[in-house]
Design goal:
alpha/beta, Rossmann fold, seven-stranded mixed sheet, 9 helices
Length: 200
Amino acid sequence: MDIICMDLEGVLVPEIWIAFAKETGIQELERTTRDEPDYDKLMRRRIEILKEHNLGIGEIRRTITTIDPFEGAKEFLDTLRSFTQAVILSDTFDQFAMPLMKKLDYPALFCNTLTVDPSGVITGYKMRCKDTKLTSVKAFQSMGYDTIAFGDSFNDLDMIKASRAGFLFRTTDEIREAHKDVPAFDTYDALLQAIREVMQ
C-alpha cells in the first residue's frame, strides 16, 4: 500500500517567508531551506530578524492571506488523492499553514508549531520530532506503507531517498546537480505521470 509524502512550500504554495520578505523589504528573510540546510539555524535567525524589526505573527498572517496555491496545485492534489493516500509533511507551522490548507480543501498536514507570546511576538518554535520528514516517512513504513516522496529543498532529501521512490520538484539547479540520482520534474503533469508509473 502506497502513501504519497510531499513538501508544501515551493511545491504546492509559494514560500511564505519569501512573500513576507517582499512585503517588508527585509531581504534576509528570503533565505529558505533551499539556501540553508540547517533548519534550526535558519529559524533562529528569522526570529531574531522579526524582533529587530518589531514584527510578529499578525504581520505574517496578513501576508499569508494574500498567498494562493500555485496554478494547478489544487487540481494536482485532488487528482492524487483520488487514487492514493497523500499527506503533506512540512517544516512550516500550523499558525501559518491553516489559511493555505483551506484553499487546498484541507489535505492531511503534519507540521510544527510556533510559540507566541500574548502580544503576538514569536518567541520560538516546537518541532513535532527530530528530523520530522524522515521520521514521519519511517513511521509510515513501520505501519506497512510504501512511501513515495517529493519536495524541492535540502530538508526533503532524506525523506525522498528513504522512500520506495522519490522525486525533486521545481528545485534549484544546485540541488538538482548535487543529486543527479533523484529524478527531477518541473510540472505537475510530469510529476503525476512519474508517480503513476511507480505505482503500477
